[in-house]
Write a structure and sequence with these properties.
The chain is mainly α and about 375 residues long. It has two domains: about 170 residues, Cytochrome c-like domain (Cytochrome Bc1 Complex, Chain D, domain 2, Orthogonal Bundle), CATH 1.10.760.10; about 150 residues, Orthogonal Bundle (Cytochrome Bc1 Complex, Chain D, domain 2), CATH 1.10.760. About 45% of the residues lie in helices and about 0% in strands. It is built from 13 helices and two strands; from the N terminus they run αααααααααααββαα. The protein has a two-stranded antiparallel sheet. α4 packs antiparallel against α8. The protein is elongated, with a radius of gyration of 27 Å. The structure holds heme C (2 copies). The site of one heme C has 26 residues, from α11, α12 and α13.
Length: about 375
């Protein structure tokens, strides 16, 4: 009965009219709201916000002059850089990167809040996956490589399918944001120290920033001995070294990083953990050379330390560790998933764990 009542013509008319009104008002509303999107603006860095308003304004002016706006950015110290190339970079960045890395490259885009790890805040100019020594700037190619292959096991996607020119442009855009962040910090520090922003200082600050980037190629890490053939012996020796030099303190005896103390804070102020090396997702790349470099030089901005000094006298050990990391990172794929959170120890290796029972041969070693 209820249904019949609802279907009486009077009610239906009223409902139709109501729907019509709703539709029209929605359209009118939407029409009224259609406006040109506001131009993106750079967010002022924390240190600058703390300055008094006059100084803040001075810093902003220098930054605008030196680095431009989000749509018309300038690459610090590179007058010859084609503005159209950077505008292309801005377009690619706005479409594919901004939602995570933010307009200013502060890593606080709309989608970033719940990501772990967080999207990189470029402004500190610290990058993890470099081919250079700890503390040195990355090569431009390092950034390009990361953008192409993404960071496995994190939300950083691979952009390998973008046209080459777009990739080049967006990397230059990221560099422009990075340099802008560096200059902003240095201006804020100078302003705080001197109580003023002195325009004469700017060229010196800029030169100081760029010098580190130009020097990066002098800090590329090359292995001191050739890569050996990896085999069960190198894996065993690597396992032994893993326990001996203290990798297991953070990564755990089994490489899974499940240790009690495995918690730290990264350079950007977020909690971080030593990688689960058995996950098959090496963030910094699966090439032997990538792993070698991360052991030799550590990973910038994270608790992963450099073992350069510790292993200086035993280059073969670094390769053995690389071999062991390959072995570990393949564990899940070959179905060797630990049941009680402990990988079975390797035959012939002093116990990482108490269970000495497993006499299982190494099934596969890859590189
Ligand atoms: C869905 C989110 C997301 C998007 C979209 C995204 N990134 Fe990232 N990006 C991340 C995260 C998360 C990290 C940090 C990974 C880590 O710390 O291991 C990162 C890290 C980076 C790094 C630093 C690598 C290093 O060595 O420290 C660069 C450079 C980078 N992204 C560039 C880009 C560019 C360029 C784009 C657009 C073409 C982009 N990202 C799009 C999430 C994203
Ligand atoms: C003080 C703690 C600590 C010690 C000691 C340590 N690591 Fe790490 N390691 C980390 C952290 C934290 C990360 C994760 C870095 C990141 O955020 O991507 C890491 C990452 C790595 C990675 C890169 C993984 C990837 O995703 O690409 C490798 C390889 C690695 N460690 C191997 C080793 C080896 C081998 C040793 C011993 C020679 C060692 N680590 C010692 C904390 C440590």
């Amino acid at each position: 009965m209820q249904l019949t009542y609802l279907r009486t013509p009077g009610t239906r008319d009223r409902r139709l009219v109501a729907t019509g009104v709703l539709l029209l008002s929605t359209l009118a509303h939407a029409g009224g709201c259609t406006r040109v999107p506001e131009p993106a603006v750079f967010v002022t860095g924390k240190q600058v916000v703390q300055l008094d308003p006059k100084l803040r304004e001075k810093v902003r002016k220098v930054l605008d002059e030196q680095c431009g706006t989000p749509e018309n950015i300038k690459l610090l110290g590179d007058e010859k850089m084609n503005p159209a190339h950077l505008r292309k970079g801005a377009e690619v960045y706005a479409r594919y990167c901004r939602q995570c890395h933010g307009v200013s490259g502060d890593g606080a885009g709309l989608a970033a809040s719940y990501m772990n790890p967080r999207p990189r805040d470029y402004r500190a100019a610290i990058f993890k996956f470099t081919s250079t020594t700890y503390g040195a700037k990355p090569l431009r190619e390092d950034l390009l490589r990361t953008v192409r292959r993404g960071v496995l096991g994190t939300s950083m996607p691979s952009f390998d399918l973008l046209p080459k020119n777009d990739l080049e442009a967006v990397v230059d855009y990221v560099l422009a944001l990075t340099h802008r962040g560096e200059l902003e910090t240095q201006l804020a520090e100078a302003a705080e120290f001197d109580g003023d922003v002195n325009a004469d200082q700017v060229p010196e600050l800029v030169a100081g920033i760029l010098k580190k980037w130009r020097d990066a190629p002098a800090h590329i890490v090359y292995p001191t001995t050739p890569m050996p053939d990896f085999n069960t012996d190198t894996v065993r020796a690597g396992h032994e070294a893993f326990l001996r030099v203290g990798c297991s303190k953070c990564h755990g005896d089994d490489g899974r990083g499940q240790t009690k103390d495995n918690i730290g804070v990264d350079a950007w102020g977020f909690p971080t953990k030593a990688a689960d090396l058995t996950s098959g997702m090496l963030r910094g790349g699966t090439e032997s050379l990538d792993i070698y470099r991360h052991i030799d030089s550590g990973i910038n901005g994270t608790p992963m330390p450099s073992f350069r000094n510790a292993l200086n006298a035993e280059p073969a050990t670094v390769w053995n560790l690389v071999s062991y990391v390959h072995y570990l990172s393949n564990r899940r794929r070959v179905g060797d998933v630990p049941e009680a959170g402990i990988l079975k120890p390797l035959p012939g290796v002093e116990p990482a764990t108490k269970a000495q029972s497993a006499e299982r041969p190494l099934s596969r070693v890859t590189r």
